[in-house]
Structure formats: C-alpha cells, structure tokens
Specification:
It catalyses: [protein]-peptidylproline (omega=180) = [protein]-peptidylproline (omega=0). The model has no long low-confidence stretch (mean pLDDT 92). The chain contains 2 helices and 9 strands, in the order ββαβαββββββ. By secondary structure, it is mostly beta strands. It has helices at 34-37, 52-56, and strands spanning 16-25, 30-33, 41-44, 66-71, 85-89, 104-108, 114-123, 126-130, 140-150.
Length: 151
C-alpha cells in the first residue's frame, strides 16, 4: 500500500492509477479483464503507453469512480498494418505446435524477446500469421474502476 502522502485526490497527467480494467468489443463480448486475474493494473499516465484520447478519459477521475468510454482503433490498439501480416511455410513451425485458425503462436526474435502471432489462415503449406496486436483495427469499449491514484 502507498503512503498517504503519495496518494492523490484525483487523476492528473503523470499520475499512476490502479484500476480494474475490462476491454469489450462493440458486440459486448469481453476481450480482456483484470477482474479475471483478480489483480488490478497500474496505469502510468504520460509515459507514452496510452493515447491522449485514452488518458483524457481518466483526467479528473477519483477513487471508486467507474468509467466507461469507447475508442476507435487509432486511439486504442492501433490500425491493422498489412506489413505485419506474413506468410510462412508450415515447415517453419515446430511439429508439436497445433496450427489452427485463431491460435496464438509465440516466435522468438533474434534479441531473445517473444513476439506473438495469430494464425489467420492455413492454405496448403502456407500459414498466414498476423503480428498486429490482436485488437488492432477494432473499436473497443473500456470499463475502468479506479482503485488508487498516486503521484
């Protein structure tokens, strides 16, 4: 828990915000939620992690506030970039990996980091892999419940 002197009354630019976050698609289905994991997330405003549109919806919020707002692709997870979609030969995948449409496969990059890709299509020996964020190109609805605000 944070010291009382570090807590803020309301969200301002540069704050850290502890919140339960649920992300829904336009059809109302839940794409992700911190409530599933039982652990709220720290959101750091002003560090470039979130769009200005996302952050502007939080400014002025107080502890226990419940916010709901919709953002288009450009302000949420970005547009789908065609250059991030690749066709790979099926032989490039380990034999123990189950290849099916919608499956997320992790690829090791030269620097050792993992990059997830979504199998979009399998055509013979060619596998279409999408390296865009899974929610790229989607308009999404954010539901946040503010738990804590810190300087």
């Amino acid at each position: 828990m944070l010291e009382r002197s570090e807590l803020c009354e309301q969200v301002t630019s540069g704050c850290r915000v502890l919140a339960d976050v649920t992300i829904k698609l336009k059809d109302g289905s839940v794409a992700d939620s911190t409530k599933v994991h039982g652990k709220p997330s720290w959101l750091i405003l002003g560090d470039g992690s979130f769009s200005e549109a996302f952050e502007s919806n939080l400014i002025g919020a107080k502890i226990d506030d419940k916010l709901t707002f919709e953002l288009g692709p450009a302000d949420a997870f970005g547009e789908s970039v065609p250059d991030n979609i690749h066709f790979m030969d099926i032989s490039q995948f380990p034999q123990d990996v189950k290849l099916e449409k919608g499956a997320i496969v992790s690829f090791e990059q030269p620097n050792g980091n993992q990059l997830p890709g979504i199998i979009r299509e399998i055509l013979g020996t060619s596998v279409k892999v999408d390296f865009n964020h899974p929610l790229a190109g989607e308009t999404v609805i954010f539901e946040l419940e503010i738990k804590q605000i810190a300087a």
